[in-house]
User: What shape does this take?
Amino acid sequence: MLAVVGATGTGKSQLALDVAAALAERGRAAEVVNADAMQLYRGMDVGTAKLSVAERQGVPHHLMDALDVTDEASVAWYQPRAREAVAAIAARGAVPILVGGSGLYASSVLGPLDFPGTDVALRQELEADLERDGAAAMHARLAAVDARAADAIGPHNGRRLVRALEVVTSTGEPFPVGLPDVAPGTTIVHVRRERSALVEALDARVERMWAQGMLDEVRTLVDAGLEQGTTAQAAIGYRQALDQLHGRIDEAEAIARTQHLTRRYARRQVSWFQRYPALDVDGPAGAAGIAEGLLAT
Assistant: This one.
């Protein structure tokens, strides 16, 4: 398996297509498995830079448009389906290419991570506590029962703090925060761009999102139940577009907030994927060499 990972806006999708084309020239098919949590959602296209069917150049893509915006995306839901897709691709004699920047989603396929099931009643109780008390209070609660997890998650990621408290409370076991070794036979390509160039590209990308119809997309998704979804409506860009639609902020502020949050998210992605020993590729160059390396293993 090949995994193409890295921050948003670094050209992962195009590199995956370039590698697939290079493999095809050498007589080997390839198929893509999505590892971007927001590209799981039907209708979330402009704001996630999702490739259209035509842009996929005939390469099959799996786990795109798999959920309604009212569904909750979770690693526990994603992991078995992604692993099943990878196994099926390999069984067909093709090369699975895992592509995306959602760190825990990608990691759940790259190594043997186990995810406890969800306790719906407990989750709802903890989410109410988060809404009432705030993330700092939830962090203090977690620190009292699992200091290692609290330290790893930090005091600001309310959603992950809730999940950690749910796991610790329901299982009596520590919340898994470390990552295991990568599965044998896996090549990881960590796509990077120089920081200033990436920031410029991300800011321009957000401006294009609005120019290409972000607000119209969100209007349609509101009719599909976006505001009833837990995960989808919180996605970067979508929350800000909703605020604009409801008149809470203007377009300039929606774009500026989305740019800020996108830059911050990209920094977290870079930090996450640094944990893997990887071949660094600056943009789509080197696809032929990657293909040769895959065929040689």
Q: What stands out?
A: The radius of gyration is 19 Å. The longest helix spans residues 251-273. The chain is about 50% helix and 10% strand. The chain has a mean pLDDT of 91.
